[in-house]
Amino acid sequence: EYAEQALAVSKQHNFVTGEARSLCILCSILGQEGQFGQALELCKNALALYEGLSDQGGMADVYNRTGTVYN
Question: Is the pTM of this model over 0.70?
Answer without folding.
Answer: yes
